[in-house]
Amino acid sequence: MKAVISAVAVLLALDTSAGLAQQKPSRNYESPGAVLARVPEKDRAKRNPFATDPEAASAGRKLFEQHCAECHGRTAEGARRGPSLRSEDLRQATPGEVFWILTNGVVRRGMPAWSKLPEQQRWQIVSFLQEQKGSTP
Amino acid sequence: MFHPVASLARGCCLVLMALSLFKCQAFAQESPYIVTYDHHLEEPGNLEVEYFSTFGTQRAGNDFHAYWVEFEYGATAWWTTEFYLDGQTTFHDSTLFTGLRWENRFRPLRTEHFINPVIYVEYENISEADKIVKEVEGHDIASDHADPNALLRQGHNHELEFKLILSKDFKGWNFAVNPLATKNLSPNNPWEFGYAAGISRPLALKASAQHCTFCRENFIAGVELYGGLGDTQSFGLHETSHYIAPALAWNLPSGWTVRLSPGFGLNDISRRLLLRWGLSREFSGFGEVLRGLFGGRS
Asked: What is the CATH number of the domain that holds B159?
């Protein structure tokens, strides 16, 4: 039993220290513009296959609420753990750029890669975010 | 009198009760794999609590029910750490707590690639009565577990296990291959080798606009293949066991995931059947609570 307690204590200590490192904003913040600058040219030009699908944004909203809202807020306005996705940089981003960020994440800065969602669902989230462009930032 | 399994069960109930106080249950998108790993890590700050059961048939011995509880935490977006507690009941024999495992997975690359590697390192402190068969390595065969628990529990292993997780998502399919190497830390034990591979796909790739429990997109089906590859003294397929296991995961909107996987032995020295099922739930914001408890900034 001592071994179990020791292992849990070590685990908690390591997790906490890692979490603390992750939370320091000065180290972790990277502006959306800097992330967008890393998107390869061929990905930038990709088109959203659901651009004309009227239901895609609704499905994207559901997916966003399930997977993204926890960090970025229910309507992408930003929250404690993640930046607003309505910033000027992101409002001007192409669908391909948003899709690339969603697929690859910003792993060293705390945003996970969402490639575990099928490509279609990632594009549906892009449709929802593109719809948000019309909203006030 | 101290009973380790009853104590483990009480502890798990307490943990689940405490976790149920979290209002932030996260929607999970879990793969159906039980043995194989893909390259997707836990989201940072999220805790996933999982319970798995394995019913196994035993040649020349009593059938068994082995189980484990797993606490999977996303320490960062590139590091997931997991803690396991194992136990088993052998029919007409006894019930035992069989040990613990501490597993870490690291993602070395910043972006998605043609094949995505993840490095896996695990420490195991388990008795030889451990029957969860979370992986098959070396010359592990069915008859290893035929002896009574009283005899098996006397053997104790401290092991380090390394895996290279290679995984790719392509048109909705996931392909994953995990070669593994294990070293028993006691002297004079050889390195043992094994493998696991899996393929899976959601039943629907496009999400529906409505929140739904039975939508096809909530189900992911797949199949796993795993087995041993001998050791440094005798590498290869000779005297090794192998299994094939169809698997299904059902990700519920409430944050629960149910998995089911019947595994079938592929040769005469494998178990005939390993029937597995699991229940898991993901909780978001656990990292912030932990930091609050330890006085960190949130």
From this structure: 2.40.160.40
Partner A, chain B 253-292, Cβ-Cβ below 8 Å: 253, 284-285, 287, 290-291
Taking an 8 Å cut-off on Cβ atoms, the answer to whether B290 and A15 are in contact is yes
In chain B, how many domains are there? 1
**Ramachandran area for residue A78 (φ above 0: left; ψ -120 to 50: alpha; else beta):** left
pLDDT at A136: 53
Q: Is the pLDDT of residue B255 over 90?
A: no
B107-145 residue pLDDT tens: 999 899 999 999 999 999 999 999 999 999 999 999 999
Architecture of domain A31-132: Orthogonal Bundle (1.10)
| Interchain CB distance below 8 Å, B290 and A12 | yes
Q: Residue B59: CB partners within 8 Å, gap ≥ 6?
A: B142, B143, B146, B271, B272
State the complex-level ipTM. 0.85
pLDDT digits (tens, 9 = 90+) for A44-93: 999 999 999 989 999 999 999 999 998 899 888 888 788 888 888 888 89
What are the chain A neighbours of B24 within 8 Å (beta carbons)? 70
Please report, for chain A, the start and end positions of each structural domain, with discontinuous segments joined by +: 1-28, 31-132
B298 occurs within a structural domain: no
DSSP assignment of B198-217 equals EEEEES-SSPPSS--SS-GG
